[in-house]
């Protein structure tokens, strides 16, 4: 029997190209979010972020702000981080919480996996949907809300405290995105150096000033913030060590491959 597929006569109707081939032709890479198993460094950074979030909820930095800073600003920042989490969920097949799916699916930026071309594409890649704009606006409003606090004592300290919550929540979202297939950024653990220095400074002042019993929030918050920051810095060092080991292993494998190729040519 003659195989029909081997016939020199072309078929009357050509089949459509598969989706992957079409995207390849258009210069795109199909976005396929997958559940990635977290390595040691992201796992540790995730724990450090949770510690920083808990510590940042405590009014510990001595800014003497009122409820606008200690409650409202932190609540708005937490909402912004939740919206950022929804932005990540919108990239997957899972339902977006709080009925925000429509805001996450309407895209004006480049499609997932598309190579950006020019400054405009880079900007739209950061805010590709209305949900992204809403998330960044809400998170930014929460961070700046201490400016409207009529009882504010030290604005810089207030923004550091609120900013630590934003850093902790944003890092949790980043780790979640990494677990769903995004790239891991070393910038996040580097930013934890700020809470590490601030927490250590307040901890030394609190212990050195005596009468610790009346400064429990400052003591507890500074310990958590300093601990989270130092722990995150440790994860950054660990990640660099793991990256060096992987790089050395790849170099060794390449050397062995070249040796094998030369041996094969000689034989």
UniProtKB/TrEMBL annotation:
Bilayer-crossing regions:
43-61, 67-90, 123-146, 158-178, 190-212, 218-241
Going by the UniProt record, its keywords in alphabetical order are: Membrane, Transmembrane, Transmembrane helix
Protein name listed in UniProt: Uncharacterized protein
Which species? Engelhardtia mirabilis
